[in-house]
Amino acid sequence: MSDDTLHLSVLDLATREYGQSNTEALQGSIDMAVHAEKLGYERFWVAEHHGMPGITSSAPAVLLSAVGAATSTIRIGSGGVMLPNHAPLVIAEQFGTLRALYGDRVDLGLGRAPGTDGATAMALRRTDRLDVDDFPDRLADLIGFFTGMSSDNPLSGIRAVPGYGDVPEFWLLGSSGYSAQVAGALGVSFAFAHHFASDNTEAALALYRDSFRPSRFRQTPNALIGVQVVTDEDPAVVDEQSAPGMISFIRMRQGAKPEPVSMDEARAYEFNDLERRFIAARTERQAYGTADQVADKINALVESTGANGVIVAPGAAQARYRHQALDVVAGLHAAGRLVPAGAASASSAASASASASV
User: How far is CA 331 from its chain centroid?
Assistant: First the structure.
């Protein structure tokens, strides 16, 4: 990616709306990818989550194969595959298969969180050892299955087929400084999960750039930030479309695995003062509101973080409003209203200089 434009991507969770089947939710994810491609977005990622009734993206590689078949130009990838849940060889074979099917459109984004609760993580891993201390070793093995390993690695005689020699674009995902440092040290791209962890975004991206070392993968840092977008010119619609997700998130924080919330339930729900403060804090640095407000929020985040791009996480309850979020952001970008880091301050400086010379 060059730094002369702001790059736009999409993050999807294959959301299952109230009353939908899993089939309908997954088809909705494919439909969103097709829509994003038509709008000119650069990449479409799906996230790995398990045991959540409202999210059907538990098998990213399988869903990405369907997305790849329905599209032709947009990059497809994981945002991300949770590496501790899987044997590195399995991931290499899965994404090697995607590469064989869809060529160099494939991104492999990796995270170190479980993406689920402890019991489900144990069921996935078949062990009660759920720490992430071996993440660097697993990551090294995974990269090695694509690029080759040193002879002193006991796995060096194992070949990933498909996979070996067919390297996807690597990304590390994270919501902390740890992943930022690892991404920088490896010289790979980094995506920060600002859409659900907005407190440390600037610090993490600064740490990534400071830690970055050129590698066979990249010569310069490349960072995306996830931004949740719910938009409409009517503030009441924004509130209504946000409410089911907020209710679900509150319930998850209370230890539940909530079923999708209906629009009727959301309209009748009375948020208490604590919940309203939580929602205000959660949405303060996301792009909620009118098109003008979305532009202001995204530009402020890009300017403060220095990110190369934004990965839009549509947060509305209903599909047509999630599509609308993509429409609005793409329209703002086409109109030149979303600018890369430094462009706004450079423009202001140029205007001030011109005024001073008059």
Answer: 21
- The predicted structure's pLDDT at residue 124: 76
Q: What are the two backbone dihedrals, phi and then psi, of residue 170, each rounded to the nearest 5 degrees?
A: -85, 140
**Per-residue pLDDT tens over the stretch 207-255:** 999 999 999 999 999 999 999 999 999 999 999 999 999 999 999 888 8
Q: What are phi and psi of 22, to 5 degrees?
A: -60, -40
Angle between helix 177-186 and 135-147 (nearest 10): 30
- Alpha-carbon gap, residue 95 to 12, rounded angstroms: 18
What would the two tokens of residue 337 be?
Answer: 């209203």
For residue 118, report the phi and psi dihedrals to the nearest 5 degrees: -60, -40
Q: What share of the chain is helix, strand, coil (3-state, %, to 5)?
A: 50, 15, 35
- Asked if the peptide bond before residue 340 counts as cis, ω within 30 degrees of 0, the response is no
Contact status, residue 178 vs residue 136, Cβ threshold 8 Å: no
Number of H helices, E strands in the chain: 13, 10
Total-model pTM: 0.92
If you count them, how many residues does the chain have?
358
Q: Confirm if 311 and 10 have CB atoms less than 8 A apart.
A: yes
**Coil vs helix vs strand at 191:** strand
